[in-house]
Amino acid sequence: MPVTHEVFNQVPPVGETDTVDDPVLLDALHREGAGWAEEQVRAAGQLAGSAQAREWARQADSHPPVLHTHDRTGHRVDEVEFHPAWHHLLGTAVELGLTAGPWLDARPGAHVARAATAYAWEQVETAHMCPVGMTYAAVPALRHAPELARTYEGLLASSEYDTRRLPAPAKRGVTAGMSMTEKQGGSDVRANTTRAVLAGDGSYRLTGHKWFTSAPMCDLFVVLAQAPGGLSCFLLPRVLSDGEQNRMHLQRLKDKLGNRANASSELEYDEAVAWLIGEEGAGLRTILEMVNVTRLVVAGDSAAVMRSATTAALHHAAHRKAFGRYLIEQPLMRNVLADLALESEAALTLVMRMAGATDRAVRGDGEEAAFRRIGVALAKYWICKQTPAHAAEALECLGGNGYVEDSGMPRLYREAPLNSIWEGSGNVAALDVVRALRREESALTALFTELDRGRGADRRYDEQLTRLRRDLTDAVHCGDEDVLFSGARRLAENAALTLQASLLVRYSPPAVADAFCASRLGGDSGQAYGTLSATADTRAIVERARITAA
């Protein structure tokens, strides 16, 4: 070959790594009461860091699902065909216990263990975690119908991945999806027009059009429809007890910006058989219990995207030279990398705290339940909102190579905006924060009980806490809802940043806590990543975030 084809100063392949080579994750796992799960979390990290798993991720994204509405003779089949790599990813997630197992696990910390294991595994690819997360979240809604819960909980919690097209009770394990959104309503699910008519056997017949139904290959779906008593929640099986396909007809798969390995569908219900969950007219309240769990799930998904992006940027900078030095040794690049690492650590620490609150809330802790009510909404809003800019900056760290598909960064970049839209867009989540503060005094009290635990550790934090207390108190007593709601994003942002800072000043090293408070609370930074103060200990922050090859 000509000498011009000699390859040098290019970054080597990542090789075998371990996503649990991460003190932030392991410290939080033990702190939140799930240290007993370290072995299973480490197993997930080793799988996620393998070259085989990365290849599955690449293949699943490169070969999106294909819809088959009819067979060759014209009969409806409504099947979605997936690349084998998708099944490897989804099957691994199920085998790792990431579906509904924590709801049946009596050990304290079960939901924390699930959050940590999911974070470790999904750093390889997040699209397949959509049906996994919905299956996990379906149980609290399903428990409003005890007979249905007894039938399906064990199957939803199974660690066996069963793709057979059978009635759900005949399978070794099942997955669950969610079908709420309609084209005329979007987030306003009260505007749903799908009709539910009571049948003679106690089931209902659903007829209507759903604009977004994610993961249509699932075995069960939690669906909203208008019954005689009002908007109600239903469980709809894909395959009926006689083995026949239920009358849910897939019209098309959405051609999405990202999340391409996952199927999101538009479908028609044509007198589809479904069973009532809870009472007629209580559908929104019932399904919101599922939504609140999925909000924690998507916050964790976004934190995993941040961690993947940070890891990729760090790997590149550690092996690429410019101007005579490795990028990671260049002061300005190290500032950027440290800023990305700060955002990633703050996101994970908040997710794990909310997983702990969830675990304690479902075990009867009222104060943690009140804190969870506001904290999950804050985590969902802020972490998901920050992820796109974070992914873009990490991609830029790789320069032109980051814009090329082979790097894997474009997939992360396309995935990054998703969770800010799903499970309640930014406006919906921010308004939910404000409404919770105004309607539930216990939520505001619990939030400040948590925030007060960080008082005295950092002057900038104390000043921010004083401002936040004033602002939230004013919001609670504001008489003009238009004025209040127009500022909901600002209130949610300030509360989320203060909550993250509270956790970091208590649990992270001084270099991390100091840089976060200075840049996020003290105004000692610019608007872009990489504008930390020159006094920030960027070297210590970067070293804390690095993963070494296995």
TrEMBL record:
Cofactor(s), by name: FAD
Transmembrane segments: none
Record's keyword terms, sorted: FAD, Flavoprotein, Oxidoreductase
Pfam families (alphabetical): Acyl-CoA_dh_1, Acyl-CoA_dh_M, AidB_N
The Acyl-CoA oxidase/dehydrogenase middle domain, residue ranges: 178-271
InterPro entries: Acyl-CoA_dehydrogenase-like, Acyl-CoA_DH_CS, Acyl-CoA_Oxase/DH_mid-dom, AcylCo_DH-like_C, AcylCo_DH/oxidase_C, AcylCoA_DH/oxidase_NM_dom_sf, AidB_N
Adaptive response protein AidB N-terminal domain residues: 9-162
Domain Acyl-CoA dehydrogenase/oxidase C-terminal positions: 281-437
UniProt family annotation: Belongs to the acyl-CoA dehydrogenase family.
Protein's name in the database: Acyl-CoA dehydrogenase family protein
Organism of origin: Pseudonocardia adelaidensis
Lineage: Bacteria, Bacillati, Actinomycetota, Actinomycetes, Pseudonocardiales
